Amino acid sequence: MHVVKKSDPTFVKKPYDLSLLEGLNDPVCLQEIVGLFLIHTPLMIDELLADAGKEDWKKVYECAHKLKGSTGLLLAAELMELLKQIEAQAISHKNTNIMNGLLQSLVSAFSKLEISLKEDLQRIKDSGIG
Fold first, then answer.
1. Cα pseudo-dihedral 80, 86, 90, 92, rounded to 10
2. Its pTM surpasses 0.70
3. Where are the alpha helices (DSSP H) in the chain?
4. Residue of 3, 83, 103, 104 with fewest CB within 10 Å of its CB?
């Protein structure tokens, strides 16, 4: 597997960092965690959006909190920050316009992350690791 270093001009910063999971030195586990993240996160985001649509702020908070855990494993800073802000808005539920903007940003940020992460997962699988 070809590794692109940050000093390489082709390096593009990804919206996540797999170094924490790679540090486990268990490619099978890495594939399983990333695969589960890719399966469950869109479902949880859909649930979050549905709960927000019902203005069920307790459930919005709980769902955002759960998402932070799995997002933390991938060191996905932008998603983490959005989820923290969503939690804060769910607690205060003062401004639905802010919440709507955060939710749109979350969907957009996840879409970008998802594309790149699927490519990385495929590369890992194709390299025969695990």
1. 100
2. yes
3. 19-22, 27-53, 57-73, 77-92, 96-126
4. 3
